[in-house]
Write a structure and sequence with these properties.
The chain is of the alpha/beta class and 425 residues long. The chain contains 15 helices and 14 strands. A seven-stranded mixed sheet has the order 7-12-13-11-10-9-8, with helices on both faces. Strands 2-3-4-1-5 form a five-stranded parallel sheet, with helices on both faces. α3 (57-64) links the parallel β2 (45-48) and β3. It is globular, with a radius of gyration of 22 Å. The two termini are 25 Å apart.
Amino acid sequence: MKIEDYRPRIADKLLAEHLEAFGAVCIDGPMWCGKTWTALRRAASACLIADSSDNFATRNRVAMDINYAFIGPEPRLIDEWQIFPAIWDATRSQVDKRHGHGRFILTGSATPSQKGIYHSGAGRIASFRMRPMSLWESGRSEGKVSLEAVCKGENIGIVDTRRPDLAEAIELVLRGGWPETTDSPFSQAVKVPSDYAKRLIDRKIPDIDGVQHNRHKMELLLRSLARNESTTVSISSIRRDISAVGDVDIDDKTLSAYLNSLERLFVTENIRPFSPSMRSGTRIKQAEKRRFCDPSIAAALLKATPARLERDLNTLGFLFESLVLRDLLCYSEAFGASLYHYQDYSDRELDAVIEMPDGEWVAVEIKLGVNQEESAAKHLLDVRRHIAAKGGHPPQALAIVVGLSSAAYRRPDGVYVLPVTTLKP
């Protein structure tokens, strides 16, 4: 991709805001999600540590003298800083010496071990996560409906939109949100998540922590996570899944270490549980909803194809939910909201919860087909009544995010129906 082909990202605004308030900003996120391109748009100079075009001359110079990374006009980009973890403390020191805001931009596709990092960076280095492209960023959502407006309970009227068919919905899942393939033919675009998964199995995991993972066990773990995409599957269930499929013995401690490695690579981004009120009488389950940072990774690990997903709409439903969660994470962060899921011990669940900065929240159900609208709306209304009856703080708004629909609107009962291809922050 050429810099002139850059598509605006939600992270552009977040980066600008953070640079105005802090001496340095760190953009975290999975590899290939576009961190470097976004940072280069704001940087006056760059230290590209992982760049091989100069035979790793930059990397070698930083290895000899860490201060080399900070020489150049500001804001100075230091790309893939985690290769030299000492850069974190050095950045904090440079910010203290130079004073002022917007001095440095760090980008990293892994969280290094704490060895060599002695300071949190609080007050000097702000961090935020960048993700693969949402549908709005890639141009596949018309952006006619603001998620922030919905979260505030505003009237959106009736918004007509082009209705995707099943084949297009499947393509959105399999293609993923990878910037370099935004305009690529589908046949080429699907090769990227496939190669991504292969790199995780073959060599990327051992690179971040110096621990040599068992390749076969890691592959079985990744495939188990793919089969359980967007569910609250437990570690013990994943271990049984691995043993049943591969006849491999793996203990919970080892499995937890492997899962931690995936989180440190930002490959997985689990959705935390939500409680509507500390005083509520409802008992809330604390399991996280497990998911990859992009549904295309799970689809690649499952060796999913359009034909296979057309025959297996149940699996497609979980992958579509992951796609929507990716977009909701991107959009909600843009206006300071947080994303959770809800599950209590009475088997009441919500696919997503968006909590606003003022504590108000929105209950969300995710459905591929609009034919599931009535049951989803009934479920949302039932959950709201139950939470209120138990003394919890009920949701300010209720919404169904759907895949195959031709209009966004608010029902007479107050429930929003929102095609994912109409949403923007």
